[in-house]
Amino acid sequence: MSENTTNNWKDLKEIVLEKEEEKNYSSSKFQELENIVKSFLAKQDTDSTLKSLTLGALNLWSSDVHYDNSEHDVVVRFRIDGVLVDIFQLEKKHYKLFLERLKHSSNLKLNITNVPQDGKYSLDFSESKIDVRVSTLPTPYWENMVCRILDAKKAIIDFEDLWFFWTTKRMLEKAINKKNGLILVTWPTWSWKTTTLYTILSKLNTRDKKIITLEDPIEYQLKWIIQSEVNEKNGYSFEMWLKALLRQDPDIIMMWEIRDAATLEIATQASLTWHLVLSTLHTKSASDTLDRLINMWLKPYILASALDTIVAQRLVRKICPACKVEKEKSPEEVQLIKEMMKEIGMNSIPAENIKLYHGTGCEHCNNSWYKGRLWIYEIISLNNSIRNLIREWANAQEIIAEWRKLDMITMKEDGILKAIRWYTTIQEVLKVI
Ligand SMILES: [Zn+2]
């Protein structure tokens, strides 16, 4: 290892482990990583290649590393703030060598190349451990690989850092401090599913309560929480696992997802028998969730008593602080701000006087204008009038109309509020809702 490479390698570790808040996405970092990776590959040192790629991905705040095959080469791409970015290309011969090392580390079968496989590898550093989930997919040109980085430091954050405005925060705090009730966190895609749930669980995690989780798979170890992983291979179904879990006398249950009517029935029964139940559902919005739950199970009278709160959320990118400047407002943006202010009764300042900011591109954000992400939310907390509407088989529109009377804000309004506070842009909000 040359002295130069050793220094870079040391820098990389220091940046990852000690200076997370100062992450830099610049293309010079991509070049630096490419040089390190290729110098290890030239020496057939696949162990160091794997380490440097994992650390490099963490350093660039990526959630996933993609190895995408084509006929002549392999492109290494990182998902940064939800967007795929090409980092560099690998030669086929180097990729083959690395692929075998990665499969070996992840306990995948080396001789199997014609069916998809899933596995996991871990890297240990003095102060932390990074788990990486690996999945392979056969293609005509070797196997494609995607590695998801499971960084516990990113999965559990402070409750105050979940980007709730005080009204939504107060509502959720009230719900999670109840003795019982079903709380559902919903979103349309898988990504970042864990952070909100794990952060809520760690807020609730005190020695006087027993918290049990049922996960598929367990991604992060949580201190004092009893975590179990669904294993349906030996004929023990998800439903049977849930029933066994309830016999362990928990106060709080976190089940990975409401899969079907049977899971929903157990979740509602657990809620009605004095458990706080947290779970997730794949739906587009809080109102869609109500529709889906009623259609899934057709027992609205039970749902009305058991369900407490629905939290729908999306991620939007934050404006890069290094190249943030005030922007000219478009008439559409002024109109959207006006509508939002009218809906939430905000009338202290005319919409025309509100300033908007955006990024202009710089090396800190790799000219993407954005750096980092935040959540936007829509929360429905059931009160008596909403519960009565559900019992009477009201449709989602009628329930939403009732919900709007409670001064609640929609996801779009929450996003526009965050744009007029210069965290993100209206354009970014409209893209995700
Ligand atoms: Zn920038």
Tell me the distance between the termini: 49 Å
Query: Which stretches are poorly predicted, pLDDT < 50 over at least 5 residues?
Result: 1-22
Count up the domains.
2
Are any ligands bound, and if so which? zinc ion
> Which structural class do you get from the secondary structure elements?
alpha/beta
Mean pLDDT: 85
Q: How many DSSP H or I helices? A: 16
Any idea what the CATH superfamily of the largest domain is called? P-loop containing nucleotide triphosphate hydrolases
Strand content: 25-35%
Description:
- This protein is of the alpha/beta class and 433 residues long.
- It contains 16 helices and 15 strands.
- Helix 9 packs across helix 11 (300-306) and helix 10 (286-297) packs antiparallel against helix 14.
- A hairpin with a 4-residue loop joins strand 4 and strand 5.
- The longest helix is centred in the N-terminal third of the chain and has 16 residues, at 3-18.
- The chain folds into two domains: 3-151, Beta-Lactamase (2-Layer Sandwich), CATH 3.30.450; 156-432, Rossmann fold (3-Layer(aba) Sandwich), CATH 3.40.50.300.
- The protein has helices at 3-18, 27-42, 46-59, 92-105, 152-155, 166-176, 193-204, 238-246, 261-272, 286-297, 300-306, 331-344, 384-391, 396-404, 411-420, 426-432, and strands at 62-69, 73-80, 83-91, 117-124, 129-138, 143-150, 181-186, 211-215, 226-229, 252-255, 276-281, 307-319, 324-327, 356-359, 370-381.
- The strands form three sheets. It has a seven-stranded mixed beta sheet, sandwiched between helices. Strands 3-2-1-6-5-4 form a six-stranded antiparallel beta sheet. A two-stranded antiparallel sheet has the order 13-14.
- The site of zinc ion has 8 residues, from loops.
